[in-house]
Design brief:
Low-confidence stretches: 9-36
Helix content: 10-25%
Radius of gyration: 24 Å
CATH topology of the largest domain: Immunoglobulin-like
Number of helices: 2
Largest sheet: 7 strands, antiparallel
Distance between the termini: 95 Å
Order of helices and strands: HEEEEEEHEEEEE
CATH class of the largest domain: Mainly Beta
Length: 188
């Protein structure tokens, strides 16, 4: 009779352990797969440094009142036949003090990627910073803009946000946009 009681106790302990393990595992999975909110970004600032003259140019897209409010957009004016080392800085000006979203993005680099495009022929964009994944994937807080031709067009910056359900390894079409801005581009 005692053997049956001990066997029953071990059987019940094994089942209870499985339930506890599965409950913890489900809670971890739910947290890992949780779709985090996209960042609020009210200002996107670009800095371009001419690699020859070292002149610095700053341009911004801004919507300080948040979504639905007035937008201020600078025209990016640069010179042809130049290489510019560039950075992007994102701010949430709805908070006091103003929050640098760029710091959050750098800290969570594995879940973010900047995608830059331009409609001006003869322009190339090379990402210069990467996340911490193995193998590392592009981040884009720092980039190189190579301008060959004069002319006008648009410069677009998209910040892609990824989750465990829609990971960065899915490419630039995966994830969602935290923000996408387009600035006029004038090259002389």
């Amino acid at each position: 009779m005692k053997k049956h009681n001990i066997s029953n106790i071990f059987f019940l302990l094994a089942i209870a352990s499985l339930f506890i393990f599965n409950a913890c595992k489900k809670q971890e999975d739910d947290h890992a797969n949780q779709d985090h909110d996209n960042e609020l970004i009210t200002t996107v600032r670009f800095q371009f440094v001419d690699s020859i003259s070292l002149d610095t140019f700053r341009y911004a897209w801004s919507q300080p009142g948040g979504p639905g409010s007035a937008v201020s957009i600078d025209t990016i004016a640069l010179k042809a036949n130049r290489v510019y080392l560039a950075t992007v800085d994102l701010l949430d000006e709805s908070k006091n003090p103003i929050v640098s979203v760029s710091e959050e993005i750098a800290a969570d680099a594995n879940n973010h990627r900047f995608v830059y495009t331009t409609t001006l022929a003869g322009t190339q964009i090379q990402i210069l910073d990467f996340d911490q994944q193995v193998p590392a994937m592009e981040l884009g807080l720092k980039f190189r803009l190579i301008v060959a031709n004069s002319g006008s067009g648009n410069f677009t910056c998209s910040l892609r946000h990824y989750t465990n359900l829609d990971p960065k390894t899915g490419g630039i079409i995966a994830g969602s946009n935290d923000i996408e801005v387009s600035l006029p581009l004038a090259i002389n």
